[in-house]
Structure formats: C-alpha cells, structure tokens
Amino acid sequence: MSKPFVAVLMGSDSDLPTMKSTLDVLKSFDITFEAKVTSAHRTPAATHAYVTDAEARGCKVFICAAGLAAHLAGAVAGITTRPVIGVPIDCGPLQGHDALLSTVMMPGGVPVATVAIGSAGAKNAGYLAAQMLAVGDDALAVAVKEERAKSAEAVQAKDAALQAKLG
Ligand code: RP5
C-alpha cells in the first residue's frame, strides 16, 4: 500500500477555480493528494473504478465537489467507507442551493460531511481533511493547531488596526 493521500474529485474542470483553495490548504500542510475530474453522471463507471482503486492504494479521505444536481459526493460515499467531504459548487441559476441540498441530504447510513457552498466550503474541505488525518498523525495535529492560532492572531491584528484607526 502506498503513502496515505487525499483524493480531490471534481465533477467538471469548471469546478477547479473554486477547488484551488482546497488544493492550496492541502499543500500548506504537506498533505499528499490526487486531484481528478470525474462525474457521477457523465462518467459513473470511471468514478466507481477510481474510488475503489484509490481506497486500495491508501486514500484516507475523499473530497468531492460538484454543482447543479450534485451527486458526486453521495455516489462516492456509496462506494467507500472512507470519510467523504462534499463541496457544493456555486454555478447555475440557483447559486449553489441545488448543489447544497443534493450533497447534504444523504440517507441515513451513508454520510457526506458537507461544507459551505463555494470558496469558503472549498477551503474548509481542506482543513477538515487535515483535521481527519491529524487524528492519527501527531505532527499534523500540531500543524493544524498552529495554523488555527495564526488565524486567531490575524483577527486580533485586524482588530488592533481598527482600534488604532478609531483613535
Ligand atoms: C456538475 O455540473 C459539475 O460538477 C459542475 O459543477 C457542473 C457544470 O459542469 P460543466 O457543464 O461546467 O462541465 O456536474
């Protein structure tokens, strides 16, 4: 079995601009990942084959992004028992509400950990995958904690700047 990795699946290459945030977060934690365009609707057999193979090769978490009638995360969750994180993509006339409901409303027993619509969700998918892997990786757990502390410091610095401006 190869090194543990995260698989980032997208229903279309049109999802990539949003999902770049996920890849950036994974890179920032030195997490090995594979990114792939594969569709629950347009390439169902290839999606099934990839997920089965990825799990056998050491994939620990699947992140699945899709817009419109977004079934990629749910379809993947039906194939694997690894954790699946779903990112609803904001595209089309319903601003991602369609994708949110399609991703989050899974039947009992087949969970998809669904994050927010769009770029905040894409970012959080990366952090959530890191937190999941950190359960069994002490060095990564420290890195996640340090990143969280840095983010708190950034907010405090912004507040200090506001207070200075207000006099
Ligand atoms: C979904 O349909 C994809 O994930 C994408 O968000 C949306 C539109 O796909 P394209 O028509 O841009 O390929 O399956």
Automatic annotation (TrEMBL):
SMART domains: AIRC. One of its GO terms (molecular function) is phosphoribosylaminoimidazole carboxylase activity. It comes from the Bacteria. It catalyses: 5-carboxyamino-1-(5-phospho-D-ribosyl)imidazole + H(+) = 5-amino-1-(5-phospho-D-ribosyl)imidazole-4-carboxylate. Gene3D superfamilies: 3.40.50.1970. Residues 4-155 form the PurE domain. Its EC number is 5.4.99.18. Keywords: Isomerase, Lyase, Purine biosynthesis. The keyword Isomerase applies. InterPro entries: PurE_ClassI (IPR033747), PurE_dom (IPR000031), PurE_prokaryotes (IPR024694). The keyword Ribosomal protein does not apply. Pathway: Purine metabolism; IMP biosynthesis via de novo pathway; 5-amino-1-(5-phospho-D-ribosyl)imidazole-4-carboxylate from 5-amino-1-(5-phospho-D-ribosyl)imidazole (N5-CAIR route): step 2/2. Substrate binds at S12, D15, R42. Catalyzes the conversion of N5-carboxyaminoimidazole ribonucleotide (N5-CAIR) to 4-carboxy-5-aminoimidazole ribonucleotide (CAIR). Belongs to the AIR carboxylase family. Class I subfamily. This is N5-carboxyaminoimidazole ribonucleotide mutase. It comes from Shewanella youngdeokensis. The lineage of its organism: Bacteria, Pseudomonadati, Pseudomonadota, Gammaproteobacteria, Alteromonadales. The gene is purE.
